[in-house]
Amino acid sequence: MIQIEKLRKTYRSRGRELTAVDGVDLTVREGEIFGVLGRSGAGKSTLLRCVNLLERPDEGRIEVDGRDLLALSGGQLRAARQGIGMIHQHFGLLSSRTVAGNVAFPLEVMGVPRAERAERVAELLGLVGLTEHAGAYPAQISGGQKQRVGIARALAGRPKVLLSDEATSALDPETTASILALLRDLRDRLGLTVLLITHEMDVVKRICDSAAIMRDGRVVESGTVRDLLLRPGSELARDLFPLPAADVRPGTTVVDVTFEGEAAGRPFVSSLARTYSIDVNILGGAVEDVGGTRIGRLRIELPGGPELNAAQLAHLREAGLTVEVHPVPGTEVAA
Amino acid sequence: MTWDEIWPLLRQGTVETLQMTVWATVITAVLGALLGLALVVTDRRGLAPLAPVHHLLGLVVNIGRSIPFIILLVALLPVTRAIVGTTIGTTAAIVPLAVSAIPFYARLVETSLREVDPGVVDAARAMGASRPQIAWKVLLREARPGLIAGLVVTFVALIGYSAMAGAIGGGGLGDIANRYGYQRFETNVTYAVVVAIVVLVQIVQLLGDRLVRRLSHR
Questions:
Q1: Looking at the domain assignment, is residue B128 inside a domain?
Q2: Interval B38-81: pLDDT, tens
């Protein structure tokens, strides 16, 4: 649904150059919620703003719903934008208009006749649960309600794609949860494709099907959230399951075991200990609900170096677990 | 002079002052807003960045604002004659009043428009709004309380200027204070005029403030 190729955007100010997006490729499939995770300054906001050409990239290609946006004329681009909804961190509501007036705004821009507008506004407000606040001004409603107005407004043009620019970053945790639930619900009901950017791991964990991690203008890893969490060495897994720095003692093997779904229910630690008559030491662990499945990560210590534990590691892998062995200090540099 | 003699003078002067200032304010509201909008739109970070135009408009505004009104009044006499057909009377006074108020108000408009949340402009762009739509439905609309507050300030300033315009045949309260109070030493006429102007300014400011409050939903 969204195809980004070799995207590059450099800002120049007072002779200094800053490459905000440095050769990014990204594919968002139809109907999925795709999260781009990164710290502030990682370039994720610029990336998102390139998707509806609020920022014009220096190089690259952007295709949304099969249309090459960079090839469009001014008028065609405005028409294309009407089919791409966007919600903003600070909502971007018109303070001089009521809730209903704000939702009507994009319809006015599109030239929808007045009578039809009123009907559509009522429908949209119902969709986000704000019917009772139609006559309120933005200053009179809460942050969560403001973002609901933003969402209703973004959906006015019946878009296939919704872009979310840190939509929950200005909200408290409970409101964040309700907005994320609304987004997922709308995706399910309207078949939206959602591309969101966030610096909150929690957002990715709660609603994203796929994710990319951005740093210094580049995508350092991307894929479905499940694959990323199960991939050894992934940053997403490290961020989601923060385990203390591994301190590998000589003569031991430290292993991170990632398990998901039904594998989470099996007692693999005791089975390992029983089968090989060894003492298994648990160093840390965490379990999270990610998109409806339980995914966990456990750090265990086995006696003997990695070369002595080949059978044990194979045993874990056979049980359907993802196994990641920490390097013994000293060998790391060589590797 | 007795109160019975002063009263008709005051009434006539007030009507003339209002004629001059209201019309000048109406013209200023339209042209000053357009000029202010043009300043913001052509700015480096505006909707349609156009540096040469921006600098030219800025220069024009600054020149307009730096000429003392009394000099502008005289300098504009040929222009006034060309537009109105005469240089005497309240209608003729409207020209220099508007010319001096337009750049003043344009700066106030510029400031108000700059205070419009850039996030709202961004959101409108993302919705596919055209630049005229953004200028009209977002910038001018969102800044409306500020635009009106600025217009009230301009109107009050024009009441002051109109007294000077009166001195060269524009009529109005200033003219009465000059002819009776100053030239004929009728000090009580001067006091009456001052009170009338104070009351006028108070009423304008009060109504303006009320309107701004009603339109402001921040």
A1: yes
A2: 999 999 989 999 999 999 999 999 999 999 998 998 899 899 99
- Residue A137 C-alpha, separation from nearest chain B C-alpha, in angstroms: 7
Domain count along chain B: 1
Q: Which of residues 176-195 of B touch A (CB under 8 A)?
A: none
CA angle (B196 as vertex; B192, B197 as ends), nearest 5: 120
Q: What is the DSSP string of B15-71?
A: HHHHHHHHHHHHHHHHHHHHHHHHHHHTSTTSSS--HHHHHHHHHHHHHHHHS-HHH
Digit-coded pLDDT (tens) for A60-117: 999 999 999 999 999 999 999 999 999 999 999 999 999 999 999 999 999 999 999 9
In a domain, B46, yes or no: yes
The count of other CB atoms within 10 Å of the CB of residue A55 is 17
Distance to chain A for B54, nearest Cα, Å: 20
CB contact under 8 A, A84 and B117: no
- The pTM of the full predicted model, rounded to 2 decimals, is 0.86
Which of A94, A103, A141, A169 is best to mutate for the B interface (most B CBs within 10 A)?
A94
B217 touches chain A (CB under 8 A): yes
> At B85, which CATH number?
1.10.3720.10
Domains of chain A, start order: 2-230 (3.40.50.300), 241-334 (3.30.70.260)
Task: Quote the ipTM score.
Answer: 0.86
Rounded to a whole number of angstroms, the distance from the CA of B204 to the nearest CA of chain A is 23
The answer as to whether B191 is a domain residue is no
